[in-house]
What we know:
By secondary structure, the chain is α/β, with parallel strands linked by helices. Helix content is 35%, strand content 28%.
Amino acid sequence: MTVSVGIIGAGHLGTRHALNLLELDEARVVAVADTDVARAADLARRCDAQAHVDYRALLDDPSLDAVYLCVPAHEHGGPELAVLERSLALFVERPLDVDLSIADRIAAEVDARGVVTATGCRWRYLDTVERAAEVLADNPARMVIGGWAARTHETAWWEDQRRMGGQLIEQTNQLVDLCRLLVGEIAQAWAVGRPTTCPPEPDVADTSAVSLRFAGGAAGSFAATPA
Ligand SMILES: NC(=O)c1ccc[n+]([C@@H]2O[C@H](COP(=O)([O-])OP(=O)(O)OC[C@H]3O[C@@H](n4cnc5c(N)ncnc54)[C@H](O)[C@@H]3O)[C@@H](O)[C@H]2O)c1
């Protein structure tokens, strides 16, 4: 069986996912949507797919089995709900949203529809993480230390804290996901964020320190900064 996939968001990650899908015999990319018409057209050409500016037009394609959603966090909500309304399988790049209430609404809709979903929290698929989970199953963590030092993006939405959410939400969420998998739910958190000193992003908190208390009793801390 070949799975027909639509890509919403033809930027950095959407392009990477689409090109990876082209390597699989079991998948084909049939449609690409991006509000940037040139990006949509370019990726569609590379995939031999239809290009759209509006994701709703992409979702009208009757051949679709699944959708990859690769837009910035502040653009989430509408696309997921439209995909789920059609009961299509859904892959969503992380973070799920900058607004928790929208993420909760999407999660409730996923449960109600029972469709296949996945997120871009890719560390949980590493074989080393699988091994760590085996070890921790008999010997639960008492302490967690996480660090993040990575390049920040050079896209417009990174210049706006409201749209990007800060580095903790945008990037360090990979650590949060890993901790939830290996240690359990986080019950309490205290955080300090420092606005960047790099113009033109004066309001974006790109350096942060977080103290955590896990529901199972473990204590933890994260430190994050751009590389
Ligand atoms: N899983 C990972 O390891 C990983 C790595 C990098 C980025 N990401 C995440 O992937 C997401 C996208 O990041 P990116 O680097 O590709 O950003 P990007 O800015 O390169 O691409 C985003 C694209 O979405 C398009 N877009 C915005 N709103 C849209 C809408 N309503 N409909 C259609 N297209 C729309 C933009 O025009 C742009 O082309 C971010 O949330 C980012 O955090 C995940």
